[in-house]
Amino acid sequence: MSGNRRGPVPLRWLYLHMLRELAQHCGHADILREQILAAKGTD
Fold this sequence. Notes:
Number of strands: 0
Number of domains: 1
Helix content: over 70%
């Protein structure tokens, strides 16, 4: 697999990077969901 300026990127690195990014975005979505639910509860 051809990579960026660092040279070829191992497939394992790619999988770990994608999992890390997915986990980070899921965390953001969870925070937004909690804020929305809290705002609805204050009506």
